[in-house]
Amino acid sequence: MRAAVAADQFYQETRDLRVTGFLLFMVSDLVLFSSFIFAYLYLRNTGQGWPPPGAPHLNLALAALNSVALFGSGATIHFALENWKHEKFMKFAGWMLATIMLGIMFLSGQGIEYYSLYTVDHASWAGSGVFGASFFTLTGMHGLHVFAGIIYLTVLLLQAAQGKYTFKYYTGLTLGTLYWHFVDVIWVVLFSIFYLI
Amino acid sequence: MEHREPAVHLDRGFWAVTFALAIVAALSVFAWVVAPISGWLPEAANKAQQIDALFRFLAASGTALFVFVVGYLLYFAIAFRRRANDPPDALGVQIHDNNALEFWWTLIPTIFLVILVVFSIKIWAGIELGPNTGLTVEAIGHQWYFTFRYPQINGEVTNAMHLPVGQPVTLRLTSADVIHSFWVPGMRMKADMVPGLINTLHFTPRRVGRYQIICAEFCGTLHGEMDKQWFVVDPPVKYAAWYDAWQKKNSTASNALPVQSNARVAFGAGDAKIGQQLFSQKCTACHALGPFSQRIVGPGLLGVLHDPAHPNLVNGDKATRENVAEILQNGYKGDMGQMPNQTANALSNTDIANLVAYLDTLK
Amino acid sequence: MAVTAPQPGGIADHIHPEPQGFIRKYVFSIDHKIIGIQYIVTSFVFMILGGLLAELIRIQLMNANGGFMTPDTYNEVYTIHGSTMVWLVIVPMVTGGFGNFVFPLQIGARDVAFPWLNMVSFWMFPPAGLLLYASFLVGAPVAGWTEYPPVSLQGGPGTSMWCVAIFLVGVGTTLTGINFLVTALKMRAPGMTFTRMPLFVWAQFATAPLVMIATTALAAALAALFMERQFGVPFYDPTKGGSPLLWQHMFWFYSHPAVYIMILPVFGIISEIFPTFARKPIFGYKMIAFSSISIALLGFMVWAHHMFTSGLAPFLQLPFMIMTMVIAIPTGIKVFSWLATLWGGKIQYTTAMLFAIAFIATFTLGGISGVFLAAIPFDLWAHGTYFIVAHIHYVLVGGSLTGIFAGMFYWYPKMTGRFMNETLGRWTFWLFVIGLNGTFVPMHWLGLMGMPRRVAEYDPQFQTINQVESLFSFVMTLAILLFFVNALWSIRHGKRAGHNPWHARTLEWQIPSPPPYYNFKHIPTVLANPYAFDEPVPYAGLEDELTDSPAPIPAGAY
Questions:
Q1: Which chains are adjacent to chain C, needing at least 3 Cβ pairs under 8 Å?
Q2: CATH assignment, B135-249
């Protein structure tokens, strides 16, 4: 009994540390994105008008479809965690898989967009002026985050299947969910500033 | 935890020191008020007087504050030292805080800063928000010299910026390559010359004379050399004469292109000995007296005209005296980096003839 | 025991056995104390290199026409000097060094929140420094530590290495910031409420978010510069639609808070040393703590005061000027509180205390010239000149470095169990103070009279003053060499200090020197703030910690 209480206290305290640390990590990651977003908005508003010469026309429909996939994945991962809390492993695994698939869909969509920008509009990272610099840097950074997130979630799913997390102690899963929501929120901002304004 | 606050006695020593510090502070304020700043550094433009007034205020109040802080620091440090007859673990007076004191030393600096902000804004508004009236002149930064454009003068004025005394001027600043900063200490003002951006300075020259123009933003290898051009304030008649002379001189120049020096160099008159002296003064910062590969900024120049391994100059032209002279006149910009033109290097065509004669002797 | 005493089973009692073997114990250590000392030693090694570069600069400037080095070499030398001193010396010293060693001890923790992460942070630092110095082999960066584009786009290949090196250091400090913030929030000993934290802890607590947020912004700026230089991705080049001012905004959004990263922990050091040696509570504890926090917050709102001459829109200039001046108020509160702490004390003149007292004078001078520069019209005069050089050196040498020396003399006995030699310490002190002021005071004058910064040669009228400065700088170098001799010699030959030689009251002094692997046998309970000298030490649960008794106070009364 005493050992169980001790383990519980140890778990509560480390959970506290890990969640706080992870939140702070996301704050500084957010600053990284914000800096490039600031750079983009600054260049957009101080140059010789926007869009600058040579900037391609972005495909709003494709991006919107992509956004739906990513926002949908935000919902699926939420369901996954809720099911875990209700101790339903199979449902959890299903929703996690759905999340991962949606993430892959998003990345594929982005790949298609990059490909068409490159072949049809001849837009590139270094060759399309400040537009290419901001657009490819920011969406590329975000894409890398999604990619890392897919691997992260896959690892979490495998670990959960192996029994690394119990229905009582599952901080790792909470952190994965937080990360995925974070990536989602960043996309809301990027979508707005590149496609909507 | 309750602490019984001990009674605070500011003894006679404290008040005596305070009085002494007040006298020293007052003297230093007085010294700054009468300080002959315009004697140390002439006030070339009207804004210089205003900035000097602000500086006087800052220096006087800053010195007074410094006198009090350091004075009290030294006094406390000496008066409250542990004496030889104190027990080794003697304690000081156990005071934790004093709300009244803390209130006042927050409020008084705040009031002072409000005064400073108001004063600064007043002067700042005169400098930044001045009307765009009067003569408009453009100054352009290059690596590593300044050029100037005047209305109705074609091309660019290269050596010095002349302006008439007493007439308002709007100076528009930009750069042809990297960021420079246009600074005339005699005007107290500077503004950065940013490529792709135009910054302005408004002022009225008020004192005839020559004032150094200095680049105050790092701009590459020879940044330190960019202090050799002058801002000349002329009486109106003299200014008009200067203006006419430049207008005539540049009547054929186009405004679109930088000045190209095409004057012929008289090679026959070149004196290698004078050339050698010139070389050591003007060239050795960037060029070694060694083989081509011994590079400082530019290549080594030993045998520049007689090196079978390098029959061509860095710009691809054949290594002849004429082509070397052409680089000396117009400068170079390319794979090897950059070399300023003859104006920026302050070389006359005679100098160039002498240098070429000297370079020809190197084998 | 009190109700707040730790329950068995929490992190506090989750003790791993001490690692054995040299590598695990001293190289890839996860012990915050070892990591702290690693940071301090590494920073001092880089300080020797940066100091040598500084002397090369002073030798070059003894002649108005230069000649000791070519202009390009000179530009490389001062660029690496500045970058070294900021990123490889002062920032790692005050956060990674003193922060790691002292701050977990002061809050009664066994380690920082994430010891492994702490080790990773440290090990980004030496390779980054080596990379920075390796850039000399391929042509080091030349555009100063601020590396303004477009001129930094022209710089040699070393400029890209500079980007990578600073980026690495930045990632390391960011992780340290996260680590410290979690530690400060979650790992304080029972009973250590915010109003009972020592002021050094407050200082680290205020610095950690600055590090975490500002450094990330720098990382973005550096990444963009790197991409532009290596792959031609346009951000800053105006000929491709970029903006040179964008770099200045992003760089100063980091680098102004960086100034506070470098000075706030030092404020903390001074706030520990003053009460200890004046034998008196720190005056105005709450106001000092509050001013640290407000300086940290305001520090984010003033970056563009470095850009008054750059062409900032007029309506943006005013708020930045006003915010900058506002910072003078909390800073002034600190200086006045320190002065009041001295009043009525029984001051013991150890070398640490001498340095702390000198700090007040030199830092105040740097602070006052800072207020000068905040006034835009004066900044138009002094920006980009030796006046700025004087100001930055008064803040960083007269402020941070002086405070670092004070802290070294103060905590050396805790790190090693031995004192540093006090006689040598006094020589160090006087030579340092004389050299410091002789070197940097005349620079104010030079700047105002027309000497721009970052020049390899200058107007001959300034030559005499420059020669005098160079001579004084040699004196300062001598002082610093004496310090190193002292620090090395004292490791083996210093007088033994015992666990609490200064009769200080913060937690780190209540356990043996050097502290054991897991710091505290039992996590203590904190009953009050540590500065009431007439009360017993306010901790419960420390009965088992000590095997030795306090040594007598070493420094003689004057």
A1: A, B
A2: 2.60.40.420
